[in-house]
Design goal:
Order of helices and strands: HHEHEHEEHEHH
CATH architecture: 3-Layer(aba) Sandwich
Distance between the termini: 23 Å
Mean pLDDT: 85
Radius of gyration: 17 Å
CATH class: Alpha Beta
Low-confidence stretches: none
Shape: globular
Number of domains: 1
Number of strands: 5
Helix content: 25-40%
CATH topology: Rossmann fold
CATH superfamily: Vaccinia Virus protein VP39
Number of helices: 7
Largest sheet: 5 strands, parallel
């Protein structure tokens, strides 16, 4: 989606994390967010530098920041980055840098990061592979085709309506073509 969409979201709502609501969620294979965070923290340590691709308002970035030496967090939404910088100041976290960058044109040199993670952000596997150090790790959580299926079915429309197939096989193949060795994959 164009970055101006997220700029509008940031302008209208501020930070995603400021909204609290009651909800019930069922996950047959475990909460994907929890699994993602656990897997990411297994890769973290105080000597590692991470790249967060598509950091949005920075809430998650700042949540995991204490487990890394440094995190560079990139996004194309200036509004979201502004929210992220404000939250960083509010929390007093020093080891995170928020930057306006395109995930398809990352300006960092080859072999710059120990970990690249992507929490529902843009994908460019060759770029991610390029900036990872030898022995580094890439981890992501995607918006699955079924994530909003119930809502789409209620309204009878929406992006990808009626296309309920998995993207896991395609993504796994694309990762392999980009040079990655797959060590863990799971569909929720």
């Amino acid at each position: 989606m164009p970055s101006n969409f997220y700029d509008k979201v940031a302008k209208k709502f501020g930070d995603y994390h400021t909204f609290h609501h009651e909800h019930t969620t069922e996950y047959p294979n475990g909460d994907p967010e929890k699994v993602f965070k656990e897997k990411l923290l297994e890769l973290a340590n105080k000597n590692k530098i991470a790249l967060d691709v598509g950091c949005a308002d920075g809430y998650f970035t700042l949540l995991v920041a204490p487990y890394f030496k440094k995190i560079i967090a990139i996004d194309l939404s200036k509004g979201m980055l502004k929210s992220a910088v404000n939250l960083k100041k509010e929390k007093g976290i020093a080891n995170v840098s928020f930057e306006y960058q395109d995930a398809q044109k990352i300006t960092y040199k080859d072999l710059s990061f120990d970990v690249v993670y992507n929490r529902r952000g843009p994908q460019d596997f060759p770029q991610f592979f390029r900036v990872l150090k030898n022995g580094g790790y890439y981890i992501e959580i995607r918006i699955g085709e079924n994530d909003t299926r119930t809502l789409k079915e209620v309204f009878g429309r929406g992006q990808g309506y009626g296309q309920w197939q998995s993207v896991l096989k395609e993504d796994t193949a694309r990762l392999g073509r980009s040079g990655f060795k797959i060590i863990y994959v799971r569909e929720s």
